[in-house]
Amino acid sequence: MENSGGIQASLAGRYATALFGLARDEKQIDAVTRSLDTIEAAIAESADFKALTSSPLIGRADAGKAVRALVPTMGLDPITAKFLGVLADNGRLSELKNVVKLVRRLAADHRGETTAEVTSAHALSDDQVAALKTRLKARVGRDVAIDAKVDPELLGGIVVRLGSQMIDASIRTKLNTLAQAMKG
Length: 184
Prior knowledge:
The chain is α+β, with helices and mostly antiparallel strands. It has two domains: 4-107, N-terminal domain of the delta subunit of the F1F0-ATP synthase (Peroxidase, domain 1), CATH 1.10.520; 112-183, no CATH class. Helices cover 60% and strands 15% of the residues.
């Protein structure tokens, strides 16, 4: 199994590597990534599901029962559904967000893509994402998947993390730089 970027070094990395390996072996990478998108959306949209995946007060048995009750309503593929149950049984639902992120990175690497983490003050339009993908592809020489986040504290502009590189074109950083320059 590939140890891409030290992914296996963390607990979430070991789970992500196992899930990705199973998905790859069963030729279900696309189905698993779609299911992980559904899970990520559920965490973002449902306070109850977010609490289920992050609260240390919910025991393994209760978490397992809750997950198994939710899985049919979420429309997850069988591999991801079983994996979610394993996380719950092992008391590792708190690792779910990191697992999702790492599986996405492994899937992108498998497809020959690089993933760029893009943070902007406002949600990017489809045209903006497409233009950004084109520019980043020209820079790195391979397809780039965009993992977009919104952070209103940036005030404007974007911050792009691409591997070990960071491009910070945010208004917040420019204002901070200007403030430091004015202090002398």
